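FORM 12-B: Structure-to-Sequence Request
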């Protein structure tokens, strides 16, 4: 359960970053500036949400027992890893893929045609 919660937090952080970058691209920024500004604007929100969840995990670790403590350990380690990967690792990957381009129309997480897939 802690791994699922952590995975959800990591996905949320990356979706938030992606949307901020898209917003900056729509405002006419260059890809490199959009990436930089998008990460800067998303950072506070990501840190706030992860720290809040980390505090809850630490409370479970301190006052919990048995399996609850195990959940708390996995949860806290996962949140710390999630913050690092969202802020550092994904930024490096996005810069590597999109940073050197002169112009891009948008940023995509994936291309899944949900309506078509649901009808099939």
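FORM 12-B RESPONSE
SEQUENCE OUT:
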């Amino acid at each position: 359960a802690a791994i699922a919660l952590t995975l959800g937090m990591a996905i949320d952080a990356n979706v938030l970053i992606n949307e901020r970058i898209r917003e900056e691209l729509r405002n006419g920024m260059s890809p490199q500036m959009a990436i930089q500004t998008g990460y800067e604007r998303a950072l506070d929100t990501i840190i706030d949400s992860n720290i809040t969840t980390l505090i809850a995990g630490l409370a479970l670790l301190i006052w919990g027992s048995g399996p609850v403590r195990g959940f708390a350990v996995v949860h806290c380690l996962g949140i710390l890893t999630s913050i690092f990967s969202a802020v550092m690792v994904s930024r490096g990957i996005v810069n590597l893929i999109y940073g050197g381009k002169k112009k891009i129309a948008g940023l995509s997480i994936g291309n899944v045609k949900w309506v078509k897939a649901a009808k099939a």
